[in-house]
TrEMBL record:
Subcellular location: Cytoplasm
Keyword Chaperone: yes
Gene designation per UniProt: ureD
Domain of life: Bacteria
Protein family according to the UniProt entry: Belongs to the UreD family.
Name this polypeptide is given: Urease accessory protein UreD
Main location: cytoplasm
Amino acid sequence: MSPSSPPVSARATSGLDVPPSGAPEPPGHPDGVHATARIRAAHNGRVTTLPQLHSDGPFHVRRMRTSGNTAMVGIIGAMSAPLGGDRLTLDITAEDRAELEVTTAAATLALRGPTTEAATYDVRLTVGEHARLRWLPQPLISAAGSNLRQTYSVELAATARLVLREEQLLGRADEEPGHLVSRILVHRAGRPLLDQHTAYGAPEPGWNGPAVLNGHRAVGQLLLVDPRLDIRRDPVLLGTGTKDGCAVLAPLAGGPALLATAIAPNASTLRELLDQAQAHALNR
């Protein structure tokens, strides 16, 4: 954590366990935590290196094992976050020819904070020419009483490759979700590729109705951008039916890209559907 970070002594340190439904939430700093963590990958002519790994606030950034030419980074939660009023940012860059994979050690748990003001969680992804970035975090859990606005801002070079997986669980066991607003904004070679906005939980109208989630509490996206993709024009429906969830894999008009959107009754089924979508997209 950087010396400039706000005081965080009132925050509970996070582990891998999710607090049970109905348990009192830990208090937060009255003004919220403002933190920005940065990851930068570069290619030195031989391999991908990590010239910048900057931890801040709840983000504890750690270098992991490499896989071939791919540098791998894990993000560990250092405190309970995001809470109401927090302003959190992840800034991740894969420079030209770099190959980077980033994941999180555990689910991100959005909790009720000391203020009803929304927390913000911004993820900024930049991928250079002939570079590849895989953003594969664990799910985001929207706990009862939480209020979170999450934004993905993605800038891709023309030859960049991207895998972006987003999984959201609306409420813990036997509880209603908080208010969760999410936006994915992607530009490729300076042009818009995707701008998608979703909102779940009260006070959003009809979010759990048959035209949206139809009672499901797990929702996710998988975005694949790769100039080498074999893009088919027709969308593909995956899954066995409404009760067990389903996914739709569809091409995007602005480039060599496929977007899978899935809904499911639980986290494991959601992950299976997104894995099926990725395997279908890659012809595996």
